Amino acid sequence: MTEQSYNQALMALAQAGLADLAARNANPGSIKTPAAESHFLCNWMVQALKERRFSKLVADDLTRWIREGRSKGAGAQLPQLLARIQDQYLPAMENAEVGQSLQALIGELEAQDWLIILDCEVSGKLRLDCDGKNSLVISVEQYEQHLVEGKLIKPITLYIRADEQLIAQHAVKHALLLSQGDKKASCIKHHKAYRLYPGNQQPALALLKA
């Protein structure tokens, strides 16, 4: 039996949760307020975690979402979260040309007057003076060796300075899964580090579009 990837495990969780919520809402007597739906999904996640219904790869996600559901109630927006995961992950998992999608993304950002740097080695701590422009930097070594003939063969780090939701929107448009932005892991001041993996195979929850 082939072991599930994180993407597959997350998609199984999201689709099952949405299906059970839809079945619950199909009952004429069910209360369909945001608070009631979030409460239902929070309890559903508690039960799923207790029964080990899904892969241990998503156990930390379930634990976090349960905590948020209990503390925020409807504010946790659990139904919307699962819907966003399904909508974003399905096209990304079907994207067989991640390297070409990355190049298309870079071309689009250049056309939008982003500062794009692909020919500089990124090592140590650097500072980029970009006069407030949105910017994207990829170390030349990674750009030339991890992206070969339009194919992404190894994980690649993108150092980006821009509104995070803008980054998420661009990633969704090109069916790419970027990791959550990590400021501490960034070698460039005022930039966050984002990782892109071959086949969009993120090992943890990707940056999601609101």
Question: What is the structure about, briefly put?
Answer:
This protein has helices at residues 6-25, 34-50, 59-72, 78-94, 98-111, 140-145, 164-173, and strands at residues 115-120, 135-139, 147-148, 151-152, 156-161, 192-196. It is α+β, with helices and mostly antiparallel strands and 210 residues long. The longest helix has 20 residues, at 6-25.
Question: Can you give a write-up of this model?
Answer:
It is a single chain. With 210 residues, the chain is α+β, with helices and mostly antiparallel strands. It has two domains: 6-94, no CATH class; 98-200. It is built from seven helices and six strands; from the N terminus they run αααααββαβββαβ. The chain has helices at 6-25, 34-50, 59-72, 78-94, 98-111, 140-145, 164-173; strands at 115-120, 135-139, 147-148, 151-152, 156-161, 192-196. A four-stranded mixed sheet has the order 1-2-5-6. Strands 3-4 form a two-stranded antiparallel ribbon. β3 and β4 form a beta hairpin. α1 (6-25) packs across α4 (78-94). It is elongated. The mean pLDDT is 94.
Radius of gyration from CA coordinates: 19 Å
Q: Give helix and strand order, one letter per element, not per position.
A: HHHHHEEHEEEHE
Quick one: biggest sheet? 4 strands, mixed
Q: Detail the poorly predicted runs.
A: none
Count of β-strands: 6
Overall number of domains: 2
By DSSP (H or I, 4+ residues per run), the number of helices equals: 7
What is the terminal-to-terminal distance? Answer: 35 Å
SS content category:
alpha+beta
Principal-axis shape: elongated
